[in-house]
Amino acid sequence: MNYLELLQLAAPEAIVVVAALLVLTMGLFAGRKAAGVSVAVSSQQISGAGFPATSAADAGALLAALGLAIAAAAVVRLPIHSDLFHGMLVISPLNSLFKIIVLALAFFTIILARSERAFFNKAEYFAIILLATVGLMLLVESEELLMIFIGLELTGLSLYILTGFEKARRTSAEAALKYFLFGSMASAFTLFGLSLIYGIAGTTSLAAIAARLASITIEPLLLAGIVMTLIGFAFKIAAAPFHLWAPDAYQGAPVSSAAFIASGSKVASFVVLGKILLTAFAGLHGDAGWHAMAAGWTPIIAVLSALSILIGNLAALAQKNVRRLLAYSAVAHAGYTLLGLIAGGRSGFSATLFYTTLYAVTLLGAFGVVLLVRRETGGDDLANFRGLSARAPLLAGSMAVFLLSLAGLPPLAGFFGKFYLFSAAVNAGTRHDLLWLVVLALFGSLISLYYYLIVLKATFVDRADASGVTFHADFLSRLTIAFLAAAVLFFGIVPGSLLDRILLSF
Amino acid sequence: MIPTLQLFLIISAALFCIGLLAALSRRHAIFILLGIEMMLAAAGLNFIAFWRFGPQPAPPTGVMFTIFAIAIAAAEAAVGLALVIAVYRHYRTTNIDQIDELKG
């Protein structure tokens, strides 16, 4: 083991970090120049768009996107299997696949963030998105508690900053503070839980923990450790009752930050949560069947899942703000996604990973539409979506694809995602014990159709107050949104293209 | 009194509970932050105690975990205080009950 080998295996992360530093440096110089300009013109143009260095911001976005693309290429060139420091950096087909997915999500986030109204130093914003991406990559690839914790914190701290980035707006700061307070409390719980698990297992590598736990009986201290660790992850994936931050953060944050929180962070959290539960705690499975409840982690996850489905869907019904509505629906979707982990095994875990990836792509697209609508109309309430179909048919059509996919209508991706999840849950165990949860999830999807249709009604049926105004949206973000909509359609028609990849990489 | 693992676990559990109580009952954002820091410190104490009273010689995983936890807690405090200042600029208060524009 020498440093050269370490650098080789950690090359993708190193590339993203270097890209982040470069973007930051560039922003420093561009920011200086722009500050000089804005002092000169500020007396006339106070109401104008705040940060004038758009070309510098574009260059920053280009550099950041380039860094992500090079990092993805480096991931492809990694050896197929490798393990550094007993699980701290594991390279496997599954980890590499999800590293690429996370990089792609960050890539699209940066393209969308580019067209956000310029009210802050964009280069710094892109740099922090890249740092959050490094955290996500560490989360996805480490199978060791210390690295997982570091990944969680690097992601979390970056996302708190991204949430509060729009300094001029009250709600952005408020959302960031709330997100931070909930998040750091959750990470304190996780750290305490991890310390108990370390104390009982005597090791921090997931595989070694599994071997150690297989030989001992469940004791209260271990159970406390598991519950406290799960609290932290339930927060990350916004599962009820630890979801209280999500609506505020999704609504108050800059739209592109909310998109990244809802997509990248969620995918990585589900990957690592699945690894912890199905690898390290494999022996403490328990049973969540209706008649056969047995102590272990599945009953806990089952309760989280059921609560998320109920609370998420019912609360979403009452929302007038589209971002808040998407946040509550995210809570419900976290509930569905947990079904796969409860079902367990290869089919359950792959269904979870498949669903969370599709969900991330869909939500990224939906937030992209929200971003453009907010940019044009100055808000993201249902009223701001009125008459969108007449003004921007492409965006309205894409929004319909995203929302109907979230509702789970065939032939869109969400349908097959839900199908695999539910069938994995039904087939788990011998007596279809999880049927109660599947019925609840189906009922929840039925409710969800209603509130997604309300958004679509505003988009397609309602007349705009000021019609005839053309809708300004730059070509690149239109293209991105259309591409994401096409991806949702593609994965719905050919679900095997992604699912087989996930299955093969186990 | 001979220090035992139990003693350390009781102390760290107490520290964690005090921190949690502070975080839940205080309304001032900085006091909540202090409570959270106490919870993190309690977890650090746990790691050290488990390492010290575990089978020896053991690799210093617990110590490493604690050192990283301290560094992360410091970063967290920095971000947290920055956000408190950002909120204070807009709301002229750090009482979290009065920072309630987002709801529903």
Rounded to an integer, what's the Rg of chain B over CA atoms? 17 Å
Rg of chain A, Å, rounded: 22 Å
The largest sheet of chain A, given as strand count, sense and whether it forms a barrel, is: 2 strands, antiparallel
Strand content of chain A: under 5%
Mean pLDDT of chain B: 90
Mean pLDDT of chain A: 86
- The number of helical elements of chain A comes to 21
Q: What sequence of helices (H) and strands (E) makes up the elements of chain B?
A: HHH
Structural class of chain A: mainly alpha
Unreliable runs of chain B, pLDDT <50, ≥5 residues? none
Which term fits the overall shape of chain B? elongated
Main beta-sheet strand count, sense and barrel state of chain B: none
- The count of DSSP E runs of length 2 or more, i.e. the number of strands of chain A, is 2
Question: Which stretches of chain A are low in confidence, meaning pLDDT under 50 for 5 or more residues running?
Answer: 36-53
Helix content of chain B: over 70%
How many DSSP H or I helices of chain B?
3
Secondary structure class of chain B reads: mainly alpha
SSE order of chain A, one letter for each helix or strand = HHHEEHHHHHHHHHHHHHHHHHH
Total strand segments of chain B: 0
Distance N to C terminus of chain A: 26 Å
Largest interface: A-B, 44 and 45 residues
Which properties best describe this structure?
heterodimer; A: 506 residues; mainly alpha; two-stranded antiparallel sheet; 21 helices; 2 strands; 75% helix; 1% strand; globular; B: 104 residues; 3 helices; 74% helix; elongated
Report on this model:
The complex is a heterodimer of chains A (506) and B (104). With 506 residues, chain A is mainly alpha-helical. Chain A has a domain at 285-506. Helices cover 75% and strands 1% of the residues of chain A. A two-stranded antiparallel sheet of chain A has the order 1-2. In chain A, strand 1 (82-84) and strand 2 (89-91) form a beta hairpin. The radius of gyration of chain A is 22 Å and the shape is globular. Chain B has 104 residues and is an all-alpha fold. Chain B has helices at residues 5-25, 29-53, 61-91. Chain B is elongated, with a radius of gyration of 17 Å. At the A-B interface, helix 6, helix 7 and helix 10 of A face helix 1, helix 2 and helix 3 of B.
